[in-house]
Amino acid sequence: VQLVESGGGLVQVGDSLRLSCAASGSTFSDYIIAWFRQAPGKEREFVAGINWTGAHKYYAEDVKGRFTISRDNVKNMVYGQMNNLKPEDTAVYFCAAASGLYVSFDPSQYVYWGQGTQVTVSS
Question: Residue 26: pLDDT above 80?
Answer without folding.
Answer: no
